Amino acid sequence: MKNFDIIIIGAGPGGSFAAKAAAENGYSSCILEKEVLSDNGRYKACGGAMAWELVEEIDYPEDKIERVFEFLELHHIDGENFSKKGKGAIVWRSTFDKFLTDMAVDSGALLKEKEAMINLEKKNGSYEVSTNKDKYKAKYVIAADGVSSPTLKLLGWPFFKSQDVVLTITKEMKTTKPYINSILGSDSLHFFFGIKDLIPAGYAWLIPKIDKITVGWGKQIDLIKNSREEFEKFWTLPYVKEALKNSTMEIFKPHLIPVGLRPKLYEENVFAVGDAGGIVDPISGKGIPYAMWSGQIAIETIKTCEIKDRLERLGTTYEKSLDRRFLKILKAKRIVRDKIFKDDENLKKFLRLWGKHRASEIVMKKLMD
Ligand SMILES: Cc1cc2nc3c(=O)[nH]c(=O)nc-3n(C[C@H](O)[C@H](O)[C@H](O)COP(=O)(O)OP(=O)(O)OC[C@H]3O[C@@H](n4cnc5c(N)ncnc54)[C@H](O)[C@@H]3O)c2cc1C
User: Fold this and answer.
1) Which of the four pLDDT bands, split at 50, 70 and 90, describes residue 369?
2) 257 in ligand 1 pocket by Cβ < 6 Å?
3) Domain of residue 72, residue span
4) How many domains does the chain have?
5) Domain boundary among 258, 285, 314
6) Which end of the chain is more exposed for a tag (fewer CB within 10 A), N or C?
7) How far apart are the CA of 368 and the centre of ligand 1, in A?
8) Has this prediction a pTM greater than 0.90?
9) Does the residue 285 lie in any domain?
C-alpha cells in the first residue's frame, strides 16, 4: 500500500491543476490516469477553444496551438448571422492535457498512467484506492475523472439531473489548411443555432484545427429522440456541406457535457472537480478553465482548513471559494440557459446581445430580462 496525502483520479485539466497545486503546497500527491498521455495519445472529444487569457495564464507555447482565432460567427438557421470579436486559441486536447500533466509532474506530483481506479473504500479515516496494478492510501481524494466519474459512482454520489446533461457527437474531418481558410476563414469559429428547425436546447459547431475541421453537435439529453438523425440534419445545411466536401472522417466520438452542477461537490474529504462536479459553463459548454481552477481551489481549501484547524468546514469553504471565483456566475447562467433555449425569439435576443457583451455580463446585468 503506497501512502500519499492526496490521491487525484483523472489527469484531465482538473486533475493536473489539482496535482500541481498539491505539490506547490507541500502535499504528496499521486495522479491515477487510465489512459496514456502523449501528444498523439488518448483522443478527447473537444472543440479545444479557450480564451487568450488562459493561454497567457499558463504560458502555453505558441507552437502547440492549432489555430489562433479572433472571431466567433454565430449562424442562426433562418439566415441571420451575428459576429462576435474575441481572441482565443484552439488546441488539440492530447497535446494540451499532456502539457498540463507535465506541469504537475515538474512541480513534484507523481503520475501513474495506464492505471484505472477500479475500487475505493474508506477505512479508518483514509481512502484505500485500488487500480488494475496497485493499491494506494490517502486522507483526501480529488475526483477529477470526468462527467461519468467512476469515483463518485463507487461512493454512491447522485448523478446529474437529465436536463443538466448534454449529449454531444463529434467528428474530426481531415481536409486541407488552404481549403479551411478559404471556406471558414483562418481565424473564425462557427456556431449554428435554431430551436425550431435545428436543435432545441443546444447548438452545433465547425471548429477549424490545422488541417481538420471539428464538427460537433450537442443537445440536452432529455429532449433527444434520435441523435443520429438529428445530427444528420446539421450535416445537410448548405454551408456545412460545402465546408465538409472532400473531407474524410478520422474520428467519431459521442461524449457528455454537464450543464448543471452535481447535487453535491464535497463529502468526507472527497472533492468533485471539473466535469465530475458539473463545473462547466451551462450556456457555452466551456469547461477547461473551470476544471483547472476548481482543481486548484480544492487544494487551497484543504490547505486553508488545515492551517485554521477547521476540517469540518472543508465542504462549505470549497463551495464558497468556488462561488467567489466563478461559480456564482455559472449558477446564474444555468437559469438563463433555460430562458435562451425557450424559443427562437429569446435565442436571437441572446445572440444579438452576445455579439456585443460577454455572456457573464448579459447574465449578471440581467440583460435577457
Ligand atoms: C464535444 C465537446 C466539446 C467541448 N469543447 C470545449 C471547448 O471548446 N472549450 C472548453 O473549455 N471546453 C470544452 N469542452 C468541455 C471540456 O472538454 C471539459 O469540461 C474538460 O475536459 C473537463 O476537464 P476534467 O479534467 O474535469 O475532465 P476530463 O478532461 O474528462 O478528464 C478526466 C480524466 O479522467 C480519466 N479517468 C476516467 N476514469 C478513470 C479511472 N477510473 N481511473 C483513472 N482515470 C480515469 C480520463 O481518462 C480523463 O483523462 C467540450 C466538451 C465536449 C464533450
Assistant:
1) confident
2) yes
3) 55-91+162-258
4) 2
5) 258
6) C
7) 30
8) yes
9) yes
Q: Which protein residue has the closest C-alpha to ligand 1 atom 27?
A: 146
Nearest alpha-carbon partner for 48 in 87, 85, 10, 88: 88
- Residue 113: CB atoms within 10 A of its CB come to 16
pLDDT number for residue 297: 98
| Structural domain contains residue 358 | no
pLDDT tens track for 12-49: 999 999 999 999 999 999 999 999 998 887 899 999 99
Distance in Å, CA 100 to ligand 1 centroid? 13
Nearest residue CA, atom 30 of ligand 1? 146
- DSSP 3-state of 49: strand
Chosen domain end from 258, 274, 305: 258
The model's pLDDT over 55-98, given as tens digits with 9 standing for 90+, comes to 999 999 999 999 999 999 999 999 999 999 999 999 999 999 99
Residue 9 near ligand 1, beta carbon < 6 Å? yes
Helices 93-107 and 13-24 cross at an angle (nearest 10°) of: 10
Least confident span in 157-161, 165-169, 196-200, 268-272: 196-200
* Phi, psi of 22, deg, nearest 5: -60, -50
Does the beta carbon of 55 sit less than 6 angstroms from any atom of ligand 1? no
Could you read off the pLDDT of 39-54 as tens digits, one per residue? 887 899 999 999 999 9
Residue nearest to atom 35 of ligand 1 (CA): 10
What mean pLDDT, rounded, does the chain reach?
A: 96
In a domain, 360, yes or no: no
Distance of alpha carbon 333 from alpha carbon 328, whole angstroms:
9
Q: Please indicate, yes or no, whether residues 169 and 249 belong to a single structural domain of this protein.
A: yes
Question: DSSP of 310-361, one letter per residue?
Answer: -GGGHHHHHHHHHIIIIIHHHHHHHHHHHHHTT-HHHHHHHHHHHHHS-HHH
| Residue 351 falls inside a structural domain | no
Nearest alpha carbon, ligand 1 atom 13: 286
